[in-house]
């Protein structure tokens, strides 16, 4: 039976509180779980003057407001200009990529250096390994981290073990970087939401890195491509591609691939996270410091997920005596397990409370359940409260 | 993995990519659509531009095609088959060196297989029946060409200049092994010979060869003065069932990579006969499907192997580069490895029959004897000399110390991580605390080498 036009119009009327495609509708009465306001978050450089502290560049370095995909694009352009051994490929990168990260690069650097591959993840990574072995610096893109598994064998058995098995021949694939968008995006369901980082942090020989912001992304990616002689799995939180905008230095700069970053110093509790959940942690810390007068909470961005900066974390927890680890991927054998175990081993006598983990549940990313599944401000706030009260 | 088209068009956080306008500067027209003329016999579908319409419904059947023929030059009696071709363009001393290389691999195989049976090394794989494929193809390459092998290509290493000392150092995992005692036996590798270290996972090296070839191509474009190089990749017909084979041939074709793929089709993947491996016309018939020039060759005929590889190398470098596929037919005369008893799945008589009928070494020997350049005395002398040499290196390598214990931790990353340094200290502490539990005497510098 055909609908009348009026019925149809009523049927299609947008609900006030809904963004049409997103499951991230806040509860109307929410005090904590408000949408992250990227325009005011202290994690992003809203003016050009705060850049120097995090990038090590001089105070007067020229900068430009970029979102995450533009910063990635800027890093790729810088790398392609700096070193003719850099090549960029993957599915759909030639026209600019499905997330616009490689926009204009083929025009600028030619189709020999920036090109589409057939739709085959094992082929993309295998091809990249061969090119890296012959001295190139391939930057391979996997369209979504969810589709990296066909290349798992190539990453784990080949890329990670290449230098070790070649030994005295000095053969290696240190030039290799594999980029992949990861993490929840509100409506990505099972195969556009995953964060498989802990599958790679179990693999000696691979470096696993996740930036939290445009300026971090550019420095870390340039470091991975131009300076690092180990294969790097570079994970980009896709929800930040357009959401996170900040001042990014226009010139080339690198950030260390094995150092955590203390975003906010504090003395009573250490919150450790990486990628997009850092924004959640920042909001929860602000709420907690308001609610519990006199409490001062430290926030640390791991940045390098493996090999990771155990020293910075242990020093912080030895000082605060309390720790919470927050990540989006599921609890079981996640990065949080490694961090928590290391803390109990390395700061046992300083601990005043058990190390808490606030993570995704051990289930899959069901489409309509995402806002209940990923760590939110309320869950981090509650973990802070419980850890302080212990 | 199945990926729906919809899945691939996932929207980014804020706005559909479909609504993102392409930059005018970077827009490229990826295809053209031409409206069909009335009465036209075809339309240019972007997926198959040269396909004509037909009103006859007929499915393409593989059996309708005759099997791709097998190229040979010399028959099993060492006689040149095509009398009109004239003499082969090869120097006697070159042929003798190929012959000796095949015999060396064969003698080394016999001795090392036995040594494994005596428990003197952990594992071994022989090349029996496939020495011709390895030596015949390798002798057509230049030293600069880059080789990716599977594991049954000892003849390639020998032909490229890998020494008996290097073979033995690797097999015994001693301190002279470039692999630093980390890999199983027969996982050879050599930087100076442009031959990558072998890894066990099957077919993973096939896309590596495509990527390496692409790198060589770009480097040649940048610097036209360096000699042109190709990548060469060896694999068995079993490995060709892996997804990496498909990925590699397709990507090599679409990126026009100067790579020669050499498939050793020896009839078995461990116990699995080809009837359970594929139902098409071997591996060669697949090459055509990827748009790759392909040939099938008699792997027991070293002259055919050499000619085909030489021509494939030339073609691979033509017009900016392209991949070539060679399927070399042979029979795996031996067990798969020292961990396999092949008579559990095939008749002894079949194996004996192959051994008697044809093998690459006997065939070349007949050819040389027909030409009067080889005889029983030379044969005996060569075999005795090689055998002595192998046994000498065997004994020396077996006596040699193992690498330093610290090599357990080095080369995981370019620099040893803090974590690894801590773990190295911990194992050191354990060995020092419980010296009776750990024997470090066979390692260079003992505990100090950690």
UniProtKB/TrEMBL annotation, chain A:
<dbReference type="InterPro" id="IPR005475">
    <property type="entry name" value="Transketolase-like_Pyr-bd"/>
</dbReference>
<dbReference type="InterPro" id="IPR033248">
    <property type="entry name" value="Transketolase_C"/>
</dbReference>
<dbReference type="GO" id="GO:0007584">
    <property type="term" value="P:response to nutrient"/>
</dbReference>
<dbReference type="GO" id="GO:0006091">
    <property type="term" value="P:generation of precursor metabolites and energy"/>
</dbReference>
<dbReference type="GO" id="GO:0003863">
    <property type="term" value="F:branched-chain 2-oxo acid dehydrogenase activity"/>
</dbReference>
<dbReference type="Pfam" id="PF02779">
    <property type="entry name" value="Transket_pyr"/>
</dbReference>
<protein>
    <recommendedName>
        <fullName>3-methyl-2-oxobutanoate dehydrogenase (2-methylpropanoyl-transferring)</fullName>
        <ecNumber>1.2.4.4</ecNumber>
    </recommendedName>
</protein>
<dbReference type="InterPro" id="IPR029061">
    <property type="entry name" value="THDP-binding"/>
</dbReference>
<dbReference type="Pfam" id="PF02780">
    <property type="entry name" value="Transketolase_C"/>
</dbReference>
<feature type="domain" description="Transketolase-like pyrimidine-binding">
    <location>
        <begin position="66"/>
        <end position="243"/>
    </location>
</feature>
<keyword id="KW-0560">Oxidoreductase</keyword>
<dbReference type="GO" id="GO:0009083">
    <property type="term" value="P:branched-chain amino acid catabolic process"/>
</dbReference>
<dbReference type="InterPro" id="IPR009014">
    <property type="entry name" value="Transketo_C/PFOR_II"/>
</dbReference>
From TrEMBL, chain B:
<comment type="function">
    <text>The branched-chain alpha-keto dehydrogenase complex catalyzes the overall conversion of alpha-keto acids to acyl-CoA and CO(2). It contains multiple copies of three enzymatic components: branched-chain alpha-keto acid decarboxylase (E1), lipoamide acyltransferase (E2) and lipoamide dehydrogenase (E3).</text>
</comment>
<feature type="domain" description="Dehydrogenase E1 component">
    <location>
        <begin position="99"/>
        <end position="405"/>
    </location>
</feature>
<keyword id="KW-0479">Metal-binding</keyword>
<dbReference type="InterPro" id="IPR050771">
    <property type="entry name" value="Alpha-ketoacid_DH_E1_comp"/>
</dbReference>
<keyword id="KW-0809">Transit peptide</keyword>
<dbReference type="GO" id="GO:0005759">
    <property type="term" value="C:mitochondrial matrix"/>
</dbReference>
<dbReference type="InterPro" id="IPR029061">
    <property type="entry name" value="THDP-binding"/>
</dbReference>
<dbReference type="GO" id="GO:0009083">
    <property type="term" value="P:branched-chain amino acid catabolic process"/>
</dbReference>
<keyword id="KW-0496">Mitochondrion</keyword>
<dbReference type="Pfam" id="PF00676">
    <property type="entry name" value="E1_dh"/>
</dbReference>
<dbReference type="GO" id="GO:0046872">
    <property type="term" value="F:metal ion binding"/>
</dbReference>
<keyword id="KW-0786">Thiamine pyrophosphate</keyword>
<comment type="similarity">
    <text>Belongs to the BCKDHA family.</text>
</comment>
<dbReference type="GO" id="GO:0003863">
    <property type="term" value="F:branched-chain 2-oxo acid dehydrogenase activity"/>
</dbReference>
<dbReference type="InterPro" id="IPR001017">
    <property type="entry name" value="DH_E1"/>
</dbReference>
<protein>
    <recommendedName>
        <fullName>2-oxoisovalerate dehydrogenase subunit alpha</fullName>
        <ecNumber>1.2.4.4</ecNumber>
    </recommendedName>
</protein>
<keyword id="KW-0630">Potassium</keyword>
<keyword id="KW-0560">Oxidoreductase</keyword>
């Amino acid at each position: 039976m055909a609908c009348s036009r009026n019925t149809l119009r009523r049927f299609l009327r947008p609900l006030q509180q809904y963004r049409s495609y997103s499951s991230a509708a806040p509860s109307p009465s929410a005090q904590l779980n408000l949408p992250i306001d990227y325009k005011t978050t202290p994690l992003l450089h809203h003016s050009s003057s705060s850049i120097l502290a995090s990038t090590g560049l001089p105070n007067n370095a020229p900068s430009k407001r970029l979102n995450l995909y533009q910063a990635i694009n800027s890093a790729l352009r810088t790398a392609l200009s700096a070193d003719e051994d850099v090549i960029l490929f993957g599915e759909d990168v030639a026209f600019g990529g499905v997330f616009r990260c490689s926009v204009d690069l083929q025009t600028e650097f030619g189709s020999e250096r920036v090109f589409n591959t057939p739709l085959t993840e094992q082929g993309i990574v295998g091809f990249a390994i061969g090119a890296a072995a012959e001295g190139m610096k391939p930057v391979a893109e996997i369209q979504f981290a969810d589709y990296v598994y066909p290349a798992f064998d190539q990453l784990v058995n080949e890329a990670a073990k290449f230098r070790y098995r070649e030994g005295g021949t000095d053969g290696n694939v240190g030039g290799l970087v594999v980029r992949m968008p990861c993490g929840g995006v509100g409506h990505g369901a099972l195969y556009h939401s995953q964060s498989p980082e802990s599958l790679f942090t179990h693999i000696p020989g691979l470096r696993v890195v996740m930036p939290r912001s445009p300026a971090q992304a550019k420095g870390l990616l340039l470091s991975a491509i131009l300076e690092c002689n180990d294969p790097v799995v570079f994970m980009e939180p896709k929800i930040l591609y357009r959401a996170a905008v900040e001042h990014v230095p226009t010139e080339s700069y690198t950030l260390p691939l094995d150092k955590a970053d203390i975003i906010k110093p504090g003395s009573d509790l250490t919150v450790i996270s990486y990628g997009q959940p850092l924004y959640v942690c920042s909001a929860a810390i602000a709420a907690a410091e308001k609610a519990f007068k006199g409490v001062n909470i430290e926030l640390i961005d791991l940045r390098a997920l493996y090999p990771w900066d155990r020293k910075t974390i242990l020093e912080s927890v030895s000082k605060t005596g309390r720790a919470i680890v927050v990540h989006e991927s599921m609890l079981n054998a996640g990065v949080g397990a490694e961090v928590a175990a290391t803390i109990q081993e390395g700061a046992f006598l300083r601990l005043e409370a058990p190390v808490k983990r606030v993570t995704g549940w051990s289930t899959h990313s069901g489409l309509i359940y995402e806002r209940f599944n990923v760590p939110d401000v309320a869950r981090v706030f509650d973990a802070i409260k419980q850890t302080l009260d212990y | 993995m199945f990926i729906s088209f919809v899945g691939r068009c996932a929207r980014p956080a804020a706005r559909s990519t479909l609504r993102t306008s392409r930059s005018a500067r970077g827009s490229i027209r990826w295809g053209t659509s031409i409206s069909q003329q009335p009465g036209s016999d075809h339309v240019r579908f972007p997926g198959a531009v040269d396909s004509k319409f037909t009103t006859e419904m007929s499915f393409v059947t593989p059996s309708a095609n005759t099997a791709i023929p097998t190229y040979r030059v010399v028959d099993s009696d060492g006689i040149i088959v095509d009398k009109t071709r004239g003499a082969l363009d090869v120097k006697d001393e070159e042929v003798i060196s190929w012959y000796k290389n095949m015999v060396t691999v064969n003698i080394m195989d016999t001795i090392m297989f036995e040594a494994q049976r005596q428990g003197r090394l952990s594992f071994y794989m022989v090349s029996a029946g496939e020495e011709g494929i390895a030596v015949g193809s390798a002798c057509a390459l230049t030293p600069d060409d880059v080789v990716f092998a599977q594991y049954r290509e000892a003849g390639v290493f020998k032909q490229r200049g890998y020494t008996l000392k290097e073979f033995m150092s690797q097999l015994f995992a001693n301190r002279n092994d470039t692999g630093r005692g980390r890999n199983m036996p027969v996982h050879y590798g050599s930087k100076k010979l442009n031959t990558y270290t072998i890894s066990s996972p099957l077919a993973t090296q096939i896309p590596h060869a495509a990527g390496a070839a692409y790198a060589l191509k770009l480097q040649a474009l940048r610097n036209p003065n360096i000699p042109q190089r190709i990548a060469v990749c060896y694999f068995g017909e079993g490995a060709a069932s892996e997804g990496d084979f498909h990925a590699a041939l397709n990507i090599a074709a679409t990126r026009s990579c100067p790579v020669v793929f050499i498939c050793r089709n020896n009839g078995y993947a461990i116990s699995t006969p080809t009837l359970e491996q594929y139902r098409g016309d071997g591996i060669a018939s697949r090459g055509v499907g990827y748009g790759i020039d392909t040939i099938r060759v008699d792997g027991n005929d070293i002259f055919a192997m050499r000619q085909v590889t030489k021509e494939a190398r030339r073609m691979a470098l033509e017009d900016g580069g392209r991949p070539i596929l060679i399927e070399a037919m042979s029979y795996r005369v031996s067990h798969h490895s020292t961990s396999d008893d092949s008579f559990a799945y095939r008749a002894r008589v079949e194996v004996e029959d192959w051994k008697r009928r044809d093998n690459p070494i006997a065939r070349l020997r007949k050819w040389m004897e027909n030409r009067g350049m080889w005889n029983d005395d030379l044969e005996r002398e060569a075999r005795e000399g090689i055998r002595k040499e192998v046994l000498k290196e065997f004994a020396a390598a077996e006596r040699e110390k193992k690498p330093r214990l610290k090599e357990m931790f080095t080369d995981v990353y370019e620099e040893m991580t803090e974590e690894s340094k801590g773990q190295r200290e911990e194992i050191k502490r354990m060995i020092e605390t419980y010296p009776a539990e750990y024997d470090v005497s066979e390692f260079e510098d003992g505990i100090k080498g950690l």
